[in-house]
Amino acid sequence: MTMTTETHVPYRLTRMGVVMTPAAGDPNEVEGVLNPGSGRGPDGELYLLPRLVADGNVSRVGLARVVVEDGVPTRVEREGVVLEPDRGWERGVGNAGVEDPRVTWIETLGLHVMTYVAYGPLGPRTAIAVSSDLREWRRLGPALFRYQDDLDMDLNLFHNKDTVFFPEPVTAPDGREALAVLHRPMWDLGETKPGQGVRVPAGVEDERQSIWISYIPLADVRDDLAALTLWEQHRFVAGPEFPFEALKIGGGPPPRRIPEGWLVLHHGVTGVLESAFAQQQKVNYAAGALILDADDPSTVVARTPEPLLAPETDDERSGIVPNVVFPTAIEEVDGRLFVFYGMADSKIGVALLERTD
């Protein structure tokens, strides 16, 4: 896990405002609207799929059409709930939810692929659902990790979050055409079974939560869509390197192809982490960027030593979880790129993403 020497990432983020706040009197939103997925519907309209949080920290995934004024997303019109925590593995005693959706349009499949956190009896697990229209979602189930002997570890043991698919096939380490997905294993088994402590795979020296990549052979998915849940050829991508990500890092919106490779916005965390089962109150989340190699997306080409966006406004500094900027979606509107992000686990903001050279 060597240090990356290139720190020039030619992009900046500029705040454009708040696009969604909790609806007064709606019990599904009493604890916030945040961390949306996104996509274009069959009607060509832009939609957000926000996480809606009800009393008791119970989360659902909603659908909201984005209203654009003068080329800028300014607000949304709600169109209901599209995913409820109504499966047993999404509901535990004292915790439940379908959380933090990331949505990638994968053209080769003709489908929107959603990864989300299924918060069930044993804590947070990644799950996958697919849709052709953003409204009707077919669950494929929790993600499973094929055993890899050189890691000397079964990744199915661990909680996992911040998962997101690449929008187009890449070449896997074994040379096959594959779909790729970023994810963030959480190495503390004590969160599931007290006393087990932190375990890391062979060759991993840093116990902090980091970004990994796994692959799914495209031929397998074409034979059976359920193969989207079986991930293999796991590789470390990037861990904390700079002060704004001292505790951990995790992936954000779907990677976006740029001339230099793959642009990945991510979050970096500082402060004090509590249990994975608790809402954090002593942390600071900021947004940075990585560039991954076009041919080998497990390789980091460059990364930002300072955040592109950090919690500075009242909406970002005060909320259910204060001091949070959490990017989860990128969309093009009238030829410009906009990033949608969670603000203090309470609202959704939008920022303009621009090249700087």
Note the main attributes of this structure.
mainly beta; six-stranded mixed β-sheet; five-stranded antiparallel β-sheet; 3% helix; 357 residues
Give a description of the structure.
- The chain is mainly β.
- Helices cover 3% and strands 50% of the residues.
- It has 2 helices and 23 strands.
- The strands form 5 sheets. Strands 10, 11, 12, 13, 14 and 15 form a 6-stranded mixed sheet that branches. Strands 16, 17, 18, 19 and 20 form a 5-stranded antiparallel sheet that branches.
- Strand 21 and strand 22 form a beta hairpin.
- The chain is globular.
- The two termini are 30 Å apart.
- The mean pLDDT is 95.
Brief description of this entry?
By secondary structure, the chain is an all-beta fold. 3% of the residues lie in helices and 50% in strands.
Radius of gyration: 19 Å
Cα end-to-end separation: 30 Å
How much beta, percentage-wise?
Answer: over 45%
DSSP E strands, number:
23
Categorize the overall geometry.
globular
Coarse structural class:
mainly beta
User: How helix-rich are the residues, as a percent range?
Assistant: under 10%
Mean pLDDT: 95
The largest β sheet comes out as: 6 strands, mixed
Helix-strand topology string: EEEEEEEEEEEEEEHEEEEEEHEEE
Number of helices: 2
Poorly predicted tracts of residues: none
